[in-house]
Amino acid sequence: MEFLGWPTILLLVCISCLLIAAWRNTSQRGKEPPGPTPIPIIGNAFQLNPRDLMESFKEISKKYGPIFTIHLGPKKAVVLYGYDIVKEALIDNGEAFSGRGNLPLFEKVFKGTGIVTSNGETWRQLRRFALTTLRDYGMGKKGIEERIQEEAHFLVERIRNTHEKPFNPVTFLMHGVSNIICSVVFGDRFEYEDKKFLDLIEMLEENEKHQNSIQTQLYNFFPTILDYLPGPHIKLIKSVDKVDAFISEIIRAHQESFDPSCPRDFIDAFINKMQQEKGNSHFTVESLTRTTIDLFLAGTGTTSTTLRYAFLILLKHPEVEEKIHKEIDRVVGRDRSPCMADRSQMPYTDAVIHEIQRFIDFIPVNLPRAVTKDTILRGYFIPKDTMVFPLLSPILQDHKEFPNPEKFDPGHFLNANGTFRKSNYFLPFSTGKRICAGEGLARMEIFLFLTTILQNFTLKPVVDRKDIDISPIVTSVSNIPPPYEVSFIPR
User: Fold this and answer.
1) Which residues pair with 459 in a beta bridge?
2) I need a surface site. Which of 66, 138, 266, 398 has the fewest CB within 10 A?
């Protein structure tokens, strides 16, 4: 046998050592969650329908179980399917799953600097500050509840001026809800005729349209290619840039008129924090701009869409609307505005609102998380920084917790004696350390806007009720109601 030579032998020994080390490392850390075999570059694009990711995930889960791996293009992600596995991850191992996984579209639009998409110490400090400021907001002359009641009154008068003519409520509801976050963040509401405000609302409406396009759905799979192609995805990015410019102008005006002894709103509170902690890289003009955008977009779109969907569902189910009317009349009457203290005495209305949020399943896939360290879950190894999708839809649509989940039924949240029934599966705002920071505000807005409008009006459809379709328009991000018109008839 020919002698291989010392260089060759040394090379073989090194390769063997590397292979043994790799094998040991793999065996020690365990295997990663299984999943469909990806194709180079495009990943699992052929197994995932961007227009209905939930159905794709459902089929994959049937084969691989409640935890599996998918590839969005070349990027790997782990999917959690079902209440038990999501609870185990986000609650029992909350710190490990507290990172934010940034999809390419998120990275392009939000740049990872605001409260929603940041990570690490920046996220912790921004979130803590935002939660404290929103919770303890007492800088203005009115409390949050009073602001919502006042805005609901303005909205009722605006609806009354339609004189029972049918119209699409999307703009009215977006105006009303947006003014709440404006009053908290900017220090004041906008008149409905304000030109800048109208332009801003129009941008938000356009964002929703662009978000639903197939190009936008595919952007997270092929960002490098789609960056060079025109389409709605590019318009969405430019539209958010316009919102950025709008908010930046307001921030500059606040900086010019800022008085540390008299903070007026969230922006002033943030500027004050910046001045107190000069040199702290977490509190900058950029992070203020992005955090404000996060609060504004999240605080407007989610709640206004929920209300819009609520009225469509009530058009389909007049018997539900009638029961709400009776409960409002019994508890609140017609001579004062509904308040949050009324909710505990209105179990049916409370159940309807919960069922609306469960049924519409607004963000079925949930915003992506990321593990902050190498993590073991159900015996599977998940490497640090891996993106994780803790799905909400399988929880809100769980057959055991909610019999006939595809059916709208307020009974899902009512006990046999008519009292309100709580459910651990009610997670429309997600759960864990990344739970929606505006959950309390959103719940207050939905209750007060809905009850105030129904205190004053009865809904009248413009088509036969049997022809009303309450099935959502499904996108890769959210479920939204189909467009419709409604007449508001004074009671």
Assistant:
1) 488
2) 138
Cα(125)–Cα(320) distance, rounded to whole angstroms? 43
Write down the mean pLDDT value for the chain: 87
Evaluate if residue 38 carries a pLDDT over 90: yes
Contacts of residue 360, defined as CB under 8 A and 6 or more positions apart, other chains included, come to 306, 309, 313, 472, 479, 481
What is the sign of the dihedral through the CA atoms of 44, 49, 54 and 56?
negative
Q: How many CB atoms lie within 10 A of CB 333?
A: 10
pLDDT at 466 over 90: yes
Q: Are strands 75-80 and 387-390 parallel, antiparallel or unpaired?
A: parallel
Q: Give me the residue spans of the domains in the chain.
A: 111-366+408-490
Each residue of 383-424: pLDDT tens digit? 999 999 999 999 999 999 999 999 999 999 999 999 999 999
Q: With 0-12 CB in 10 A as exposed, 13-18 as middle and 19+ as buried, what is 201?
A: buried
pLDDT in tens, 75-91: 899 999 999 999 999 99
Q: How far is CA 386 from the centre of its chain?
A: 21
pLDDT at 142: 58
Alpha-helical segments (H) within 111-231: 120-135, 144-160, 170-185, 195-211, 214-219, 223-226
Out of 89-93, 213-217, 437-441, pick the least confident: 213-217
CA angle 392, 70, 374 (to 5 degrees): 85
* 436 labelled binding-site residue: yes
Which residue has tokens 């017609």?
334
Round to whole Å and give the CA distance between 124 and 115: 9
User: Taking 90 as the threshold, does the pLDDT of residue 491 lie above it?
Assistant: yes
CA distance linking residue 77 with residue 93, whole number of Å = 18
Ramachandran area for residue 101 (φ above 0: left; ψ -120 to 50: alpha; else beta): beta
| DSSP summary character for residue 38 | P
Which pLDDT score is estimated for 30?
67
Distance CA 97, CA 327 (A): 42
Give the CA distances from residue 112 to residues 106, 119, 372, in Å, rounded to whole numbers and listed in that order: 8, 8, 16
Chain segment 141-151, per-residue pLDDT in tens = 458 899 899 99
SS3 of 461, please? strand
Prediction pTM value: 0.89
Q: How far is CA 451 from CA 326, 328, 420, in A?
A: 11, 7, 17
Phi, psi (rounded to 5 degrees) for 465: -60, -30
